[in-house]
Each structure stands twice: as structure tokens, then as C-alpha cells.
Amino acid sequence: MKKWSWILMILVLLPLVGEAQCAMCKAVAESSQQGGSSIAVGLNNGILYLMIFPYLLMGAVGYAIYRNKKQHKA
Q1: 19 vs 25: CA distance, rounded Å
Q2: 12 CA to centre of own chain
Q3: Distance in angstroms (rounded) separating the CA atoms of residues 19 and 44
């Protein structure tokens, strides 16, 4: 039971840490955009680039599982 309570506590508190970091990124992007810099565009492109790979991996694993189940069914 202790293990699950620790996992639950981590999952509840983890978004709070991430939210603070997003506020810092947002402040930097807003201030740079007002100054005429393209840091905000680069930051957005970097975020999109980093988000693509987990989705590609999940898709590949899902497809492998689907193909494996379909092969065993036949």
C-alpha cells in the first residue's frame, strides 16, 4: 500500500513542477517576441520536434502489437 501512495503522490506533485517551468518558458518567449526576436518561434518548433518522437514510438509499438495479435489470430 505504501508503494501506491508514493506513486500517487509523485503523480500529483509532478505537474506542479512542470507547470512552473512552462511559466518561465512562456515569459522568455513573450519578452523576446516583444523585442522583435525569433526565439519564440524557435522555442515552439523545438517543442513540436521533441513531442513527435514519443508519438512515433507509441505508434510503432501499437502497430507491432496489432500486427503480432493479427498474426497469432490467423
Answers
A1: 10
A2: 16
A3: 16
Indicate yes or no: pTM above 0.70: no
Distance CA 43, CA 45 (A): 5
Which one, of 19, 41, 21, lies nearest residue 30 by Cα?
41
Element (H, E) at 35: none
Residues 38/45, Cβ–Cβ less than 8 Å: no
d(CA 69, CA 65): 6
Per-residue pLDDT of the chain (74 residues; tens, 9 = 90+): 677 888 888 777 766 665 556 667 777 777 877 777 777 778 878 888 888 999 999 999 999 999 999 998 87
The residue whose grid cell reads 500486427 is 67
